[in-house]
């Protein structure tokens, strides 16, 4: 399990630097743009490799946190239908990308039907980071307080 958690920390941590510590990122990039990109790529790749290996190890002997009823799989499949549109929306002209900036429907649908510890750790880490960043940095990014 340590591989999965370390991989998530590396991957999500390096991807959060531009949001949390922009001045630190700019300082490193000013010294060497290529060096920063190489460091960013190596840490991201190491994180992905650790996530894949840790996830694979946890799937060999799964620990079920919850078992979902069969009908919930149909609900999750129904939730997956608009995901294809939302996933491709930023790449085509239209208003969908302006209305829905960060669709998290995919994570919620997966969380409904995947109850193993490995699945929950990966989904909650990604979704949790998004929610923390969305509320913590809402005023900085959008100019409006999250809770008015």
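Q: What amino acid sequence fits the structure above?
A:
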């Amino acid at each position: 399990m340590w591989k999965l958690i370390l991989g998530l920390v590396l991957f999500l941590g390096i991807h959060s630097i531009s949001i949390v510590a922009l001045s630190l990122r700019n300082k490193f990039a000013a010294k060497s743009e290529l060096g920063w990109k190489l460091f960013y790529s190596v840490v991201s790749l190491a994180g992905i490799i650790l996530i894949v290996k840790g996830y694979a190890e946890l799937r060999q002997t799964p620990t079920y946190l919850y078992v979902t009823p069969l009908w919930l799989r149909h609900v999750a499949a129904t939730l997956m239908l608009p995901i294809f549109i939302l996933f491709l929306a930023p790449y085509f002209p239209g208003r969908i990308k302006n209305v829905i900036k960060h669709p998290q429907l995919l994570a919620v649908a997966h969380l409904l039907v995947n109850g193993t510890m490995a699945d929950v750790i990966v989904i909650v880490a990604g979704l949790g980071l998004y929610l923390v960043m969305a509320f913590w940095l809402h005023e900085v990014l959008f100019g409006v307080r999250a809770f008015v």
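Q: And what stands out in the fold?
A: Helices lie at 2-20, 22-31, 33-60, 70-88, 96-99, 105-113, 117-136, 138-142.
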